[in-house]
Amino acid sequence: MPLLLTSSDLQSQAVWASEFQHNTVFLDRPYDVVLGNGEAWIAQDGAERHLGPSDIVVVLLFRAPWEPAHADDPFRSLESFLLLEEALDFAGCAVRPGLRDWRAAYSKAALLRNDLFARVHAPNTILVDGQAGIAGAQVPSEYIVKCGYGVHRSVGDLRPRPSVIAAGTGFSPNASYRYVLQDYVEPVAECRVYSAKQGQSWKSAVFAMPCGARDCPDWRFTTQDRDLQVVADSHSELAEINEALAEDLRLWYLCSDFILDASGAPHLVDLNPHGSWRWLPEQAAARVDDLVKESLLSFDDLASKP
What we know:
Layout: E1 3-6, H1 9-13, E2 24-26, E3 32-36, E4 39-44, E5 47-51, E6 56-60, H2 74-91, E7 94-96, H3 99-106, E8 125-129, E9 143-149, E10 163-165, E11 178-183, E12 189-198, E13 201-209, E14 230-233, H4 237-249, E15 253-260, E16 266-272, H5 282-304
Parallel strand pairs: 1-2, 1-6, 6-7
Antiparallel strand pairs: 3-4, 4-5, 8-11, 9-10, 9-11, 12-13, 12-15, 13-14, 15-16
């Protein structure tokens, strides 16, 4: 079976995770990489895995691999991850997706790629990463501020919530976060799409989410007791858009968020190559479980072919 690189979230995600456990490395827990003498190895919890050109390495991460493994020393985690990236390249492993492609999508930089948006509109997006902030003149329209991804270092349980900022108002970021600033689109509906590649085809599930409107609640904290409905499957417009985006980004799994405006036009507001589903209600989470399970098994089938 392929080697799966993921985070510990997958262990509790579904019963089927145990099927892949003996070939899984959890990158949010300490691990060792050995590179030299023409060989590459990765070790965790007393088990070692030799890396070679016949290996198919599958990446599915719900948290940044360089953050939690050594909470007291995030730079060590980053260096371990970069060494692992070098080891996989050195060993000639087939990595799905490529870690550089995965990181480009995870960092939200992919939201700035104009070539992706022939199929769907994305609001004008600015990334802010640092302490200086931006002046109001740089954002002439009303905009929404969202946490872009994770923390660069431990800041307790702080998680910035989305907020709408008036036109011409400056913004001073917390230096521990990367932020995404986007032109505000008044939502009539919000959808989250999960897509996973299975062999040469795709399967998707489209969920209708609670509409945030101007108070911009994070619906991940408000959907636990709701019965989310799959409003569409593969071959729907949003599913096809998400699958095409995943192909363009060279990913095998992608979760994206869309807003529909009053005219029904979709707007892409977020890309998540690590999109978690553990917070979804049970029935909805089971649907994504099946998508990802079938996709992982398709990698297994590929690895077994001569």
